[in-house]
User: What shape does this take?
Amino acid sequence: MISYKQWSMYMSFEPLPSDFYGFENSLSTQEKDLILRLREYLETEVRPLVNDHWARAAFPMQVVKGLADLGLYGMPWKETQPFANSAVFRGWIALEIARVDASIATLVGMQNGLVMGSIGVGGSPEQRAEWLPKLASGELLGCFGLTEPLSGSDSAQGLTTIARREGDHWVLNGAKRWIGNGTIADIAIIWAKSAEDGQVKGFIVPTSTPGFSATKIENKQALRIVQNADIVLTDVIVAEENRLQLANSFRETAAVLRLTRAEVAWAAVGNSMGAYEAAVSYSKERIQFGKQIGAHQLVQDLLVKSLGNITSSIGVVTRVSQMLDEGVQRDEHASLAKAFTTSRMRETVAWSREVFGGNGIVLDNDVIRHFADAEAIYSYEGTREMNTLIVGRTITGKAAFV
Assistant: This one.
C-alpha cells in the first residue's frame, strides 16, 4: 500500500527526501511532469513486483510496455524523442528507477542506451528510421553483446568473436557472456572483429536467426531480475544491411559506452538512495532501549554519512551530464563519475543495511536487495579499476593498463 505522504509526492513535484540540496528542482516543468508520472508508475506497478521477482530471478515482462508508454526508451534520439530533454534529466530517470529497483533501471539503460545507442551512434539514417521506433515503443526488446567469456575489460583488443564477409552477408562465430536481456530479447547488437581488417564492427542480429543461442546464467546473486545470458554464435548469417553502417572500429563502440557510463553512475546514486530511504524509514519505526533507533547517535551517524555520499554523488553526476549536453564530456569524465559514485554506493548500502541490524538481511525490508545489486553495478560497464586507469592516464599522461 502507498501512504498518503507518498501519494502527495505525485500531486505536486517535490525533490526526493534523499535529494538533500534539491538538485532535482533544476529540471524543466515538462521534465518534472514526466518524473511525477514515472514515480506513480514505479510505486503502483513496479515496487509491488520486485522483491518476489528478485527472489525467483524472474523478469516481469509487463514493465517493458509500461516503461515504453511513458516514453522512456526514446529520450535521446530525434526519431523517437517525445520532447526536448537534457542529459541531466535522463540521468534522473535512471536514478528514480534505480531507487526502486536497479534491475529495472538496468533494463532501461540497456534498451535506451546500449541497444538504441548502438543504432543511434553506428546506424545509418535508414537503420535508425527502421529500428529506433520499434525499440522505443517496446515492440522489440534488445540486448547488447560485447563482453565475452575471456574478454571483459580488454574488449577493445581482446574480442574473439569473428565476422567474415561472404558476398552480401556476414558469418558470425563466437561467444558472449553476461548479456542482459539475452534470453528474452528480440534482437541483439553483436560486436565482432572483422576477419578482413581486424576492426570491431557492430551487427543487428534477430535472436531467431539460426545458429544464435542464449542460455540463462543461473545462481546470480545480484540484479537477479535481469536475465543475463551466455550467447553462442555458430555460423550466424547476418545481411550486410544489418551491419551498423557507421560502426567501423571500436571507437564507435566506445562512443556508445561513453553515453551510457554516466547513466550507470546515476543508477548507482539511485540504488544508494533506495537503501538510504529504507534505512531512514526503519530508523523511525524500530524501537530499542525505549525509543526509536533514529534517536541514537550511532544510527544518526550512519544516516548522515550515507546522505553525504549521496549528495556529493549527485553533484558529480549532474555536472558530468551537463558536460554531455555542452558537448565537452570525454571518456575520463564519465569514468570518474562511474568510479566515484559506485565506490560511494558500496559504502552507503553497507551503512544502510547496518541500520537494520539482523532485519537487514530479510528481503521484505528491501535494503538487502539494494546491497546485493550494488555489487553488480560496481562492476559492469567498466570496473572501478579500469575507470581509475582511464582517469589516471589523463592526470599523468601515462597509460598504466598493463
DSSP finds twelve helices and nine strands in the chain. The longest strand covers residues 169-179. The beta strands are 142-145, 162-166, 169-179, 187-194, 200-206, 212-216, 229-239, 287-288, 291-292.
